User: Fold this.
Amino acid sequence: MTRATIPAKAYTDPGPVRAIPDADTLNLPLAGRFACVADGAWVDADETVALPTRPDALPLHAPLAGAVHLADDVLVLTPTGAESSPPAPARPADTIEFLALLRDMGVAGLGGAGFPTHLKLRPGLDMLIVNAVECEPGVSADQAVLESRIDELIAALDRLVDLIGPAETVIAVDGHNARAKDLLASRAGAFRLADAPAAHPAGSERQLVAALTGNPLAPGERPAARRIALINLSTLAAIADAFDGRPMSHRVVTVHGDACSDPGNFRIAFGTPIAHIANVLGGDDVTAIRTGGSLTGSLAAPGAVVGPGTLAVELLRHTPAREAVPCIRCGVCAPVCPEQLNPQRLLESLPSPNGDTTDSRNPGLDACLLCGACTAVCPSAIPLNDLFRAGRAALRAERAANAAADRARERFERHAARDRARAARRAERLRSRRQKADAKALIAAAKGRRT
Ligand code: SF4
Ligand code: SF4
Assistant:
């Protein structure tokens, strides 16, 4: 099948990174962490307020000075506006100290997945890729970070490479992004500057590895299996902050959309309610909010807050999708799929609302990147990637429920087998006791006859 792509994005001036007024309260989800400060405590900006309970969780730092209130699974911070003390720069001497620094500073991937960076970087890498391919239309947060902090970023990359020593370091940019290429051309030094295909989702991990190595990842294969690590450009900025002694507690967010009064890129504290951003930068006519990008994102849930994966907030005046109509089987969606899936078939095989889900009926859902390329071209306006996201969540919930049921059945069978073995032993003891009693009785009877 001839592959098609959705139109390349136009790169324009992202403008400076600006600030918005702080929200009255920040809601910091604890997810996999426990609060290490008391309810009602006053904390400084950058102070560690929660520690991980799982190996894949990171500590949480107060984005601002303020008072802490502990609620169910959320740490609520009421900022006081107090100044924070200047950070102390860190000088990790080797890889171990460097990875410990990233962990302690809570550095997570800012490209969307939020995976702890210290678990990705390690010595012995064949290739380290700095992913500056921000191919999603409307999003320019990485571009704004690149343009405002280019020298810091290159200096941090130099230190990072010295500390982990990858065989090759590549900075990947969209081939159409002349602004980024011009900026990096004179500064990249020994790092290879590579063009990625100018089409969404060229910046996804799998597409980028295929483009840079010429050897696509197998289904389910992770870059780490090839000794390749990818870090997003904004994550590199967070690593620069960690070297300066500043933990990850904010990120640059693109705020845009037809109901946004002042579109641009803003440095926003984690835990800031999305509703606060809509209040500051939207008008009364905001009727829907998408987070995470126009193509890959989804409608913001009530109470949603800014976190590492909040690349963008789109404030919309109308409901984002046209009225969806049934699939007309036109096949337009298949040629744009970067993973060679057939979105139409995937749609037909989605779990039904009555819970009829099986892995065999949904073989492509795990491979779907949720990139939204199929949604962008669908003439029936079917929100395919939203449906695939929901379908995958249902499928994973079903798998987890099935696994729990299997474990419960195995436990029950083990108990039943133990009960059966115990009953058999008891019966055996009884039988043996009876045999002994019978034998005794026989002996006694025989003795009686002799006398
Ligand atoms: S959302 Fe999934 S099915 Fe649709 S184009 Fe992207 S990878 Fe393919
Ligand atoms: S593009 Fe839309 S209408 Fe056409 S086959 Fe795919 S899902 Fe159906």
